[in-house]
Amino acid sequence: MYSNAQRGPGKNQGKPNVTTSAKQTADSLLAVKKQSGADTTGAGKNATSINGAVTPGDTSLTNRGLTDSTAVDSLSNPDDLQNAVQYTAEDSTIMDAVLKQVHLYGNAEVTYGTINLKAAYIRLNWVTNEVYAIGTTDPADSTSKKTIGDPVFQDGPETYNTKEIRYNFKSKKALIQGIVTQEGDGNIRGEKVKKDAEGNFYIRHSMYTTCNLTHPHYYINAPKIKMVNKKQVISGPFNLVISDVPLPIALPFGFFPFPKKKENGTSGILFPTYGEEPNGRGFYLREGGYYFAISEYINASVTGQIYSTGSWGLGVASTYSRRYQYNGNLALRFNKNKSSDEVDRDLGRGQTNDFSIVWSHAPRPRGNSQFSANVNVSSNSYNQLQEFETNKYISNVASSSVQYNRTFGQFMRAAGSLRVNQNFGQVDPDPASNGRKKDGKTNVSTDFSFGVNQIAPFALKGGRGRWYESFRLGLDFSGNYALTNSLTAIDTSSSSLGFSIINEVDPARANKTKIVAFNMANLPEMLKDAQFTGRYSLPISLPNFKVLRFVNVTPSLSLQGEVFTKQYAYSVERNQVRIDTLRQAGTEYSYNFGAGVNTRFYGTFFVKGKRLEAIRHTVIPSLSFTYTPDFTGDAFGFYQKVNIKNRGLDREFSLSRFRGIGTGVSNGRASSVISFSLNNSFEMKLKTKSDTAAQQFEKVSLLDNLSLGGNYNLLADSLNLSNITVNANARIGKNLNLNFNMNLDPYAYEANPRVLGNQVGTRVNKYAITQGQGLANLQNLGFTLGTSFAPKSSDKTKPVPPAANGNPTVTEEQREFIAQNPELYVDFNIPWNVSLNYNFGLTKSGLSNAQLIQAIQVTGDLSLSKNFKVSVNSGFDFTAFEPTITSLTLYRDLHCWDMSFSWTPFAGSASRVSNYNFTLKVKSAILQDLKVTRRRSFYDRSAY
Question: Which residue among 20, 90, 125, 446 is least crowded, i.e. fewest CB within 10 A of its CB?
């Protein structure tokens, strides 16, 4: 059924001469239009409803529709259309009763079910059930013959831009002249197109490209292709055309799948890259494999690499996401490296196995529980040989954690975690090691905790402001089981302990660390040193009060303890101590009490300056006292007293039943500690530059914090005073940040006359100032200065702009990822930026020589034009007197292409040879729309 609806008045102009009915005079059509109820004014104001199987002159349909609304058509023709055809025209609607056609002029639109057609001119034919649409010549531009109002055909969610189209409503077939349609990241264009009833398109003289410009920078040129309905493009012989230059390389056929709307992509083959690696593994094929688009929530890829020297590698990577719930990624990689040196291969040297496990799981907080993971575990040499990012290549440590937290109601909570900390060691000086690292340390620990939040037992029903109602009490319990490949034996010699034991440790291993490979073969040895530790505490908050109005007094009381799974029993045999290990659980606790006082006062220095009004100095002194009783008595049962005859004298030793003997073992004696700290800050008061400002003065910080602190143990038998720590941080001006720290030892050191050369010496119970060693001995000192410069108009935290042309392939997750990882992309909208960092470090133990670390790092980029950027990363190590890792990268945005050239003139390590690479790759549609470029590392990518 056809039904014409009013859209609005228009001008009767620009009608194409495409049918004979359009050439008829107004007088010959007047009677027909009046008979059928058509618009005789050319203004498109009247409406008509005509059945396609009935002639326009038959008015019985209208009468039936008006008089008998309950009539049922029991003789419906199976050839009738299943949906109503609605049409509108802004200019005029002309009905040809003789040829049974309707002509629509000026922004015409026809809708049939899910099909919508818009064009400057549309012709409907209810005899053949066809619609024909074409654009018209722009009357304002008669010289270029530019057409306007080209047909736009929409079938459900799919949209096709055409030059001319003929479509049959019943057969669902179409004949199209000139088509442009978007499929995924690419678009298809063709001159002559046929569409069948299944939605397949047969296109001649076609091109396929991901460039969304009217004149694309590149495209795949094919004489004919078939576009299977919403699935893929199948092409005959084709070749690549770049900047209108056809490349001589052609392929006999092509297959281009379309990504499904709710998937991260389409399953398919990942073609490898090729080249030569400077690390000695030779020529390679890398990153080839297969991509699995499993579902809209998860995907996976399996890739591999192979080198001419026999090295190879495999990797599995997966990304998963569930909106408003969680997202993450998992990657497992293994590489078997073989040396390129034939002698090393014959001798079985230079072969290493590298692995890496990376897992990141970031949940969105929901309900009362949360699970998160950040795992990064790899072999010692993996970063050196496989990673290509600067921060990973130079990194010597890695940490991983898996955590689960849950709350129970308002007061109870629980948590569990698994942690792995790695130190990859130092570079092996042996030339045969090829600069690889050794003595890597791995610590694996599992933690759990349970707690009750602090409650006010005297104010459960609401307090009335009494002082004791602020008393609060809680509970914390935590446990830890640690496993490490760094095995350290304590010194059990009589000179260290003061007595001799029967089962003495080999003196060659005393106080020395033995590092074993972290594998299953060494697991029994590592389990011997593994230890479980449980801790509990009762956090107590006592009411605080003020003295003399300005001094805050805070009393404190705490109770804490530890749970052990084994105990030690001591016995004396022939003036030697025998130690037996008992598999018996036990607990040791302690408590302490004390109080702290603090106050705050100011000093203001008024200055008669042009803008400077005053400088204010804020001082916050604090002093606290903590007392811990003696727990070595027999009543507690934490220590066992043993009498030993040493050099004819009877001595009594208190040995811990739970902690054993050796260094780091608490003696359980009473302690009375006074802690002190002094915090300072400086700020100045300036007049505002503008007289119209809302505030007359502004405050500028000169020094955010300058603090020093330490403690003194009144009951210690020697070395009562701790080291003095000094810390400072300030923001100088608007861009310069300063951080400073220093550690001072107040005691003197005496040299050992039996040790020649550089030595630490022995710390004695005499202050350094009394021994002519200055006020204190400097242990370490460090400070960093950092600044950055960028134009005021640039803002790296600005939100990601919406996609151009309303690109439906740009998802919210993709925008969020780019916004959260700006360092992975090059933003050509920022003209330039520079970052400078200076690091200085000094370490000096006792009388030994000081060790210096001093380096400056410079990073920055400069946009030479709106599509051309230069990036530099370099620095200088003043200690080694050589440059740090230096790279120079050129980025060129070619709209639908990425071009980059990276050069590393100095790699900073013999294991990573200086190299360069050139990349030219097609850019995805999302990056075109967002005006950013994916960064490519300057390192040779030997991983995935």
Answer: 20
C-alpha 509: how far from chain center: 44
* Parallel/antiparallel/unpaired status of strands 825-827 and 777-789: unpaired
CB-based contacts of 221: which residues, under 8 Å, 6+ apart? 206, 207, 238, 239, 240, 241, 246
Residues with Cβ within 8 Å of residue 758, at least 6 apart in sequence: 848, 849
pLDDT at 814: 59
Q: Are 183 and 259 in contact (CB under 8 A)?
A: no
Q: How far is CA 31 from the centre of its chain?
A: 74
> Could you give the residue ranges of the DSSP H alpha helices within 12-160?
26-36, 60-67
pLDDT at 431 over 90: no
Rounded CA-CA distance 873/904 in Å is 10
Helix (H, G, I), strand (E, B) or coil at 524: helix
Region 785-794 average pLDDT:
81
List residues bridging with 359 in a β-sheet. 330, 375
Its pTM stands at 0.60
- Give the three-state DSSP class for 470: helix
Kindly state the tokens that stand for 57: 């002159």
Burial of 718 (0-12, 13-18, 19+ CB in 10 A): exposed
Q: Give percent of the chain with pLDDT exceeding 90.
A: 24
Residue 26 backbone dihedrals phi, psi, to 5 degrees: -70, -30
List the one residue out of 875, 726, 868 whose CA is nearest residue 786.
875
Element (H, E) at 643: strand 639-646
pLDDT digits (tens, 9 = 90+) for 108-159: 999 988 899 999 999 999 889 999 999 988 777 766 677 889 999 998 888 8
Token pair, residue 685, equals 């008061």
CA gap 261, 268 in Å, rounded: 16
Task: Determine whether 595 is exposed, middle or buried from the number of CB atoms within 10 Å of its CB (0-12, 13-18, 19+).
Answer: middle
The separation between CA 175 and the C-alpha centre of its own chain, rounded to angstroms, equals 49
User: Integer distance in angstroms from the first to the last C-alpha of the chain?
Assistant: 60
String of DSSP letters for 861-919: EEEEETTEEEEEEEEEETTTTEE-SEEEEEEEE-SSEEEEEEEEEE-SBTTB--EEEEE
Residue 927, classed as helix, strand or coil, is helix
State the Cα–Cα distance between residues 18 and 104, nearest whole angstrom. 12
Beta strands in 157-265 (DSSP E): 158-168, 174-183, 186-195, 201-209, 218-228, 232-235, 238-242, 245-251, 254-257
DSSP state of 543: P
Tokens standing for 95? 């009905």
Structure tokens at 455: 């409650």
What is the C-alpha separation between 416 and 403, in angstroms, rounded? Answer: 6
- In this structure, the strands spanning 601-606 and 886-893 are unpaired
Neighbouring C-alpha atoms within 13 Å toward the C-beta of 276 = 8
Helices (H), 23-91: 26-36, 60-67
CB 684 within 8 A of CB 615: yes
Do 505 and 487 touch, CB atoms closer than 8 A? no
Cβ contacts of 120 within 8 Å, gap of 6 or more: 14, 105, 106, 107, 108, 134, 135, 136, 147, 148, 149, 150
CB-based burial label for 121 (10 Å; 0-12, 13-18, 19+): buried
Instruction: In the chain, count H helices and then E strands.
Output: 9, 61
Residue 259 pLDDT level (bands cut at 50, 70, 90) = low
C-alpha distances (whole Å) from 295 to each of 318, 322, 327, 362, 596 are 12, 11, 14, 19, 60
Q: Which residues of 164-200 are buried (b: 16+ CB within 10 A; e: fewer)?
A: bbbbbbeeeebebebbbbbbbbbbbbbeebebeeeee
Give residues with Cβ within 8 angstroms of 871, minimum separation 6.
826, 860, 861, 887, 888, 889, 890, 891
Distance CA 831, CA 796 (A): 11
* Spatial distance between the Cα atoms of 432 and 352, rounded to a whole number of angstroms: 13
